[in-house]
Amino acid sequence: MASSRKQKAIETRERLVKAGEAIFLEQGFQKTTIAQIIKKAETGYGTAYVYFKNKDELLIELMQTMMNFFYQVSELSFEPSTKEEAKELIVYQTKEFLSLAISYKSLMQVIKEAIGYSNAVEDQWTSIRLRFIEGITNDITYAQTQGLVAKDINPHYAAKSWFYTNEMFMWEFVCSKEKDDLDVVINTITDMYINGLYE
Q1: Which residues cross the membrane (predicted)?
Q2: What angle do CA 3, 13, 1 make, to 5 degrees?
Q3: What pLDDT digit, counting tens, does each position of 84-95 carry?
Q4: How far apart are CA 14 and CA 8, in angstroms?
Q5: Helices (H), ranges, 32-104
Q6: Which single residue of 89, 129, 167, 183 has CA 20 to 30 Å from 71?
Q7: How far is 39 from 32, CA to CA, in rounded Å?
Q8: Do domains 1-53 and 56-197 have the same CATH topology?
Q9: CATH number of 56-197
């Protein structure tokens, strides 16, 4: 019985998440209501609120699931022994990062909208941003131990500047109607970053 109840709970939660994603993508964050999600998931209000108290929590669940793919890219091994190796790794990570954002374009647009209206979603995005910056900081610190980056460079602030550059272009690719060339953007910003940071 316990196993059956657990399975039913998992299925109910999945239905709510799928329903929430469908309505968010169709209507955007502001126009979506938790009542619409519950109706589409064909579950009761009392049951639904056991899992998500509002649409903000449900979107955060979707964000976390999506961001796991981004984390896999950002947390790839980074142990270059030369400036050229560092550039090759950074180009690869940057392309994977921006390509993932483009592949999740519709959901990313919902998140961008939600950041302006939901403190909970904004806090979640801040947490995501800090995790990326911490990873980049560690990479720069490693490069310093290898003599590839000057010791007087502050790894944290260098990491913040690199992440914010990527984040800006990410939102442009996701939200702008203009079609910038992905490879040109990646090569340009990576050259600026590498030449400004690596010796």
Answers
A1: none
A2: 15
A3: 999 999 999 999
A4: 10
A5: 34-41, 45-51, 55-74, 83-103
A6: 183
A7: 12
A8: no
A9: 1.10.357.10
pLDDT, one tens digit per residue, over 21-68 is: 999 999 999 999 999 999 999 998 888 888 999 999 999 999 999 999
Tokens encoding 162: 């690199």
Listed as own residue / partner, the contacts of 66-71 with beta carbons closer than 8 Å and 24 or more positions apart are 66/104, 66/107, 67/128, 69/100, 70/97, 70/100, 70/101, 70/132, 71/131
CB atoms within 10 A of CB 128: 17
Q: With a cut of 70, say whether residue 1 has pLDDT above it.
A: no
For residue 42, what are its two tokens?
């064909």
* pTM confidence score: 0.91
180 has pLDDT over 90:
no
Res. 83 pLDDT band, cuts 50 70 90: very high
What's 149's DSSP letter? B
For 87, the 3-state DSSP assignment is helix
Domains in the chain: boundaries: 1-53, 56-197
- Return d(Cα 8, Cα 140) in angstroms, integer: 46
Is residue 2 over pLDDT 80?
no
Q: At 25, which amino acid appears?
A: L
- Nearest to residue 112, comparing CAs of 173, 175, 39? 175
